[in-house]
Amino acid sequence: MTTSAIDPDRADTVDVDEIARQALACTSVLGLGDEIASHIHGRRVPGVRVRDGVVRLHVVGRCDRTTEEICTEIILALRCLVADLTIDVAVIDMADPYSFGDGTAL
Questions:
Q1: pLDDT per residue over 38-88, tens digit each?
Q2: How many CB atoms lie within 10 A of CB 82?
Q3: What are the Cα distances from residue 10, in Å, to 27, 40, 55?
Q4: Domains of the chain with CATH codes
């Protein structure tokens, strides 16, 4: 069974693209995970799902920050966008912001 990634009641008021942009703008976030996504108008917004009054995010955090720091920064950044929804952040991976994908450092 396929279900919508956004509550039908919230589809007009929740901008998952802006949620993704705000999360990625956080200094402790290096990327969004691909395990969850919102499917809107035939396209996919990875790392963000809004359902049942909860904004769920899967993020890759900086390894020089604690999980608590990462989650707090994201929650504060999103609070004005989704004030009446619960924000649930899962830090699914940690990465070194100063290395390349092949493991070499700057």
A1: 998 889 999 999 999 999 999 999 999 999 999 999 999 999 999 999 999
A2: 21
A3: 28, 13, 11
A4: 16-95 (3.30.70.1350)
